[in-house]
Design goal:
The chain has about 350 residues and is an alpha/beta fold. It has helices at about 35-50, 105-110, 120-125, 130-140, 145-165, 170-175, 175-210, 230-235, 235-240, 270-285, 310-320; strands at about 1-10, 15-20, 25-30, 65-75, 80-90, 90-95, 100, 115, 215-220, 255-260, 260, 295-300, 325-330, 340-345, 350. It has eleven helices and 15 strands. Helix 7 crosses helix 10.
Length: about 350
């Protein structure tokens, strides 16, 4: 259950490339600025419908072109499923098994993908939005009702905020409160349940990688002493003042502490990277064994910002897993063992070897 073939056209410096992947380990070597990260970006877009480098998909389109395309074949137990993504300047189109995707979530079900890259420390360092996305990717893959609840919550929130922005009376704004509260509580319950499982696995990994005690906690975006409708009522004046809803799962936070102190306040960039990697690896270890597909893990230059000892520890945690690995590097990475497939990339052109 892994990606077997990839075609990329007109994405960043990649004019037209085609690769086949080993179900366990594929290595892509090349100098800096050769297109290694762009290739991983194409894989990520195929599984997520978005980039891990920019929110603006038009930035991925090769200069002088109107769109990019990414096509992949995913090998499942009884069949191969084609996936396709076309990135245009005004949006993205996705196809699954030849038919238009109802939503980008269909891509994630068939091709779940995660990445550990030189910017992975931002999971620890930046604001709560990135950590919410991290948490929700894991919840999505274990709780089938999560996406429908999230979509209904977002629609209700959008309508409520529109009423606030146009200065509608409280009776009009509050018409959305009941549905907002119902879906908010379902989202919070799913996140809480998932985090309890994630915390145990991540704590063991953090202990091995960092030698410190990790604690994860979830703050739902309103006081747990209140029901959500009561929290909305208490927040009314602030909502009116700021013209948007100030409480709810869209403002939740995943709090991360090491040895009792907020992680981003006490550890180095390299340690932040190791901690973020531990969280991502824990998430992959929790992936349901009966899922349609297993995750593919992308590693972009894993040696960046890590000394040899810590790099060895990280590789040891990854090498024994059953998930597909796609690794980019300036040189051969022998610690993972022999790659099933190996490519060299230079100036956006890919060749075996």
């Amino acid at each position: 259950m892994a990606l077997r073939r990839l075609q990329v056209t007109d994405l960043r410096c990649l004019q037209s490339v085609e690769l086949e992947f080993d179900p366990r380990f594929t290595l892509i070597r090349g100098p800096n600025a050769s297109g290694k990260t762009s290739l991983l970006e194409a894989l990520y877009v195929l599984g997520r419908g978005r980039s891990f480098r920019t929110r603006r998909l038009e930035h991925l389109i090769r200069r002088g072109r109107d769109c990019f395309t990414v096509f992949g074949e995913i090998e499942l137990p009884a069949r191969r499923v084609p996936l396709g993504v076309e990135g245009l300047r005004d949006g993205i189109r996705a196809r699954v098994a030849g038919a238009p995707a109802a939503s980008l979530a269909e891509l994630a079900l068939i091709f779940p993908v995660q990445i550990i890259d030189p910017e992975v420390h931002k999971l620890i360092e930046e604001g709560p939005g990135r950590r919410r996305r991290f948490l929700d990717w894991g919840v999505f893959h274990v709780e089938p009702r999560f996406i429908p609840n999230w979509q209904r919550y977002q629609q209700s929130l959008k309508q409520r905020n529109a009423a606030l922005k146009t200065g509608q009376p409280r009776s009009v704004v509050s018409a959305w409160d009941q549905e907002l509260a119902r879906t908010a509580e379902e989202i919070t319950k799913a996140r809480d349940t998932y985090l309890q499982r994630l915390a145990g696995v991540a704590q063991e990994l953090a202990k091995r990688l960092l030698g410190q005690d990790l604690a994860l906690s979830y703050r739902p975006g309103w006081s747990r002493e209140l029901g959500f409708e009561d929290a909305l009522s208490q927040s009314w004046k602030l909502d009116v003042e700021r013209r948007s809803t100030q409480v709810g799962p869209h403002r939740a936070e995943l709090a991360i502490q090491l040895n009792g102190v907020t992680a981003k306040d006490r550890i180095s960039r390299g340690q932040q990277k190791l901690l973020a990697a531990a969280l991502l690896i824990a998430q992959i270890e929790l992936f349901p064994p009966d899922a349609t597909a297993r995750p593919t893990l992308l590693l972009d230059d894993p040696a960046a910002e890590l000394d040899d000892a810590h790099l060895g520890q990280l590789i040891a945690e990854l090498a024994g897993g059953a998930n597909q690995l796609v690794v980019t590097s300036l040189q051969t990475v022998s610690a993972f063992g022999s790659p099933g497939r190996q490519y060299r990339i230079a100036d956006g052109a890919v060749s075996p070897g």
